[in-house]
Amino acid sequence: MRLFHPKRCGNYFNEPNLLQDDIRGFLRESGQLEWADIYSTEDINWVGDFRQLLKDFIKNKGLDYKVLERWCSRSDYGAIDKEAFSRRFPPKVESIGIGIQVADVAHWWIKQWDSSEKIELGLVSKTKWPLALSNLFFPFLFYNFHALYAKAIGYKYLGGYCRARKCKNLYLVSTTGSLPKFCDPVCRNRENVNLFREKQRGKIAPVGS
Question: Taking the domains of the chain in order of start, what are their residue ranges?
Answer without folding.
Answer: 2-92+104-155, 157-204
